[in-house]
Amino acid sequence: MGSLDHHHQESPPLPQDLKVTIQHSSLVFPSQETEKKSLFLSNIDQVLNFSVETVHFFASHKDFPPHVVAEKLRNTLGKILVPYDFLAGRLKANAKTGKMEIDCNAAGAVFIVASSEYKLDDIGDLVYPNPGFKQLIINSSFDDNLLEQDDKPLCIFQVTSFKCGGFSIGTSTNHATFDGLSFKVFLDNLAALAADKPLAIIPCNDRRLLAARSPPRVTFDHPEMLKLKMPFGEESNNAPIFDITQEDLDFKIFRLTPDDIANLKEKAKATVEYENSRYITGFNVVSALIWRCKALSYDHAKGKTPERESRMLYAVDIRPRLNPPLPASYVGNAVLSAYANAKCEELKEKPFSRLVEMVSEGAKRMSDEYARSAIDWGETYKGFPHGEFLVSSWWKLGFSKVEYPWGKPKYSCPVVYHKKDIILLFPNIDNDNGVNVLVSLPSKEMVEFESLFNKFLA
């Protein structure tokens, strides 16, 4: 199976300060006039008022030095803000309903040009989540004259050139605007327009497709959701989905090769009838392994009882699960939290195949009626997903497969903020079939997690 080091990687020495200088920042407006309107946001969009930042790294390209890319991207951004007019808008609360909407007012997206004193090779392993990557998409650096105090843009782009001629494109978008799948479509469309081609997919901006029913009908229990006590309209818009207490966390990357994943699938199949092996997917086996290690390491460190229940959450795309299905081009957030629940004793004693099956049941539960009930739940109670931890998967989103005129990214990754109740999955740099698992935990729990992880893979 290879040595212990094969699975997890100690933090390499990373330059935390990438020595980035902002050359220029400006607002970009839609290149044609767009209709002034309010865009309805679904109950799924409503709870996601925070920024998601990604960085896409590119090798140098003789026909596209960074200054040419920056100019081209700036022009392309103006063009894409026509079909994606809401990205140039601003969030506002509707005084009547107390809900957030997007005011499509063409106030603009932010575009930043920057340079680093490093070469791309100097900043280390791109897969490793370097906190320094925050400098490649800077949220707070606009000239104060550029924006009013409460004028928060929903979309920011930053092109940063490196000394070698390579460059990065950093993006920050408010999560209320896109989920991972629709952001990938946005990037495909951006790349198409940059190459002077038509849009790859015409976006469907009708978020009323996911409006609550009238009257709302909650037809299922939703243990994956936590009710908020406060009356609607009074809560802070940035209520935490998960625990945000500050504590010292260790973070490590556990690497699973395609062979490791194949072996996990074999372990799961060992105790399963052939007809049930449909649910033995890469995502399900990796999530089951993480769930076991996470729950048991917490119990061990905290001295909890085996009776304790552990709940894992993960996102499920509901586009194909609704009746009729949502268009694949639906732009807003069309993911809901699926859950798996078990006592820690079961996670320890049950065969691995049963854990994998429990994970798969979360997605199986997500029928049209369940999804509609969850959306109606949000109309009735106002609240947030709630579990011991969430598996957030960037593994198969395919951001690094987008073909720009200057080539595909060497690597694309989220800018990572370490939270102990969010475990991230993202692809290997050279092989999409392997996966990197980023875990942040207090050190006692991390020691236990690592030992369980290696023991199970051995």
From TrEMBL:
Gene3D superfamilies in the cross-refs: Chloramphenicol acetyltransferase-like domain
In its UniProt record, a GO molecular function of this protein is: acyltransferase activity, transferring groups other than amino-acyl groups
What the entry lists under InterPro entries is as follows:
CAT-like_dom_sf (IPR023213), Plant_Fungal_Acyltransferase (IPR050317)
Q: Which family does it belong to?
A: Belongs to the plant acyltransferase family.
- PANTHER family according to UniProt: ACYLTRANSFERASE GLAUCE, TRICHOTHECENE 3-O-ACETYLTRANSFERASE
Identification of the protein by name: Omega-hydroxypalmitate O-feruloyl transferase
- Species source reads Citrus clementina (Clementine)
From which lineage does this chain's organism come? Eukaryota, Viridiplantae, Streptophyta, Embryophyta, Tracheophyta
